[in-house]
Amino acid sequence: MDALPIARLQFATTTSFHFLFVLLTLGLVTLVAVMQTRSAFGEKPELTRMTRFWGKLYVINYALGIVTGIVMEFQFGLTWTGLSAVAGDVFGAPLAIETLVAFFAESTFLGLWIFGWGRLNKWVHLTLIWLVTLTAYASALFIMVANSFLQNPVGTHAENGVLKLDDFGALFTNPALMSSLPHVLSAALMTGGFFVVGVSAYHFIKRTKEIEFFQRSMRIGVLASLVGSTLVIGFGFGQFGPLGEYHPDKLKSPDPLVGASLGFMIQIGFIAFLASMLGTLLLFRNWITKVRPLLYVMVLAIPLPFVAAILGWLVREIGRQPWLIRGQLTTADAVASIPAGQILFSFIAFTVLFAALAIADWVLMSRVAKRGPDASEEAAAPRPELPVLSGV
């Protein structure tokens, strides 16, 4: 039994699960920050209740996503020892900074935000959610810096088979990063928008009495979807130019997953954009909540951004093969010299764990989403659904 394909499948599964959590986390925290900003300046009770309700869903997704991130970090040292040996000094630097940003700063600000309701000045409390948002974006930045180095190793030189860092700043001006980072962030915004719209549509299907609450939520979600889908398409095609310079053969990969995944991803992106345009037009004519079949479509459309995101990662990662660090280290040389049976066992164990986390996330978020906002939520003491841990 060959250890390499099992190790690749294991890491692909870990990364995919983690990315799904992160995508919604980044999107929701942005919308929650916008809602609280409007609440702070407008002082409308509905906006405060919206911040609390969507903030609960954000915290649940954040907390459960932590475990997948921790497992992913461990796999670098356990399964891909060749990567650590050849590029640990370079690849490890942005990951270490990301850990400090995500595990300490972001979680600290988030904890203060959760337990600061009714205890902190509203402007201090508002500042905290924006600090949470900014540190979450910083976390995404450093992860993409590390990943972009694998796509296009810059700012380094080889010394006795080990890559040494010459220019830390070059990692941040890497052509593989310049369009991919905003592409990921805009995908997260689109995902958050689709989620808010879908949950709001569900409540209109159930003929909710919280008309103003979910109308306001749907407006924010639709506009976020439109902005996010527009930017996703723009930055997505914007990557083709730099790609031709540092990796011209990626889109010509013989692996059929690259060409099948790219095509479906582009189609889903345009579908999301058209759906957001239609939703925006109906929104301004006040028809969006009155066309009942459209409400069902909104609920069913929640998974679309997640599917597109995974397809995008398949194109980005599989298209680099057989290189782990393009031109410097092959995937075969990077895998650890451990029996395939051990990797298979850990793969099965991690997959079961991730499936359990995904189910728990879905059950908890569905329960809170279906229940809707509490009528007395504005005055109630903060009761987080899950204990806050650290990380994205």
Order of helices and strands: HHHHEEHHHHHHHEEHH
Kindly state the percentage of residues in helix: over 70%
- The DSSP helix count reads 13
Number of strand segments:
4
Category by helix and strand content: mainly alpha
Low-pLDDT parts are 378-392
Oligomeric organization of the protein chains: single chain
Query: What gap, in angstroms, lies between the N and C termini?
Result: 35 Å
Biggest sheet strand line-up:
1-2
Looking at the structure, what is the overall shape?
globular
β content, as a range? under 5%
Largest sheet composition: 2 strands, antiparallel
Mean pLDDT: 84
Radius of gyration: 22 Å
Number of domains as seen in the coordinates: 1
Can I get a quick summary?
Helices cover 75% and strands 3% of the residues. With 392 residues, the chain is mainly alpha-helical. The strands form 2 sheets. It has a two-stranded antiparallel ribbon with strand order 1-2. A two-stranded antiparallel ribbon has the order 3-4.
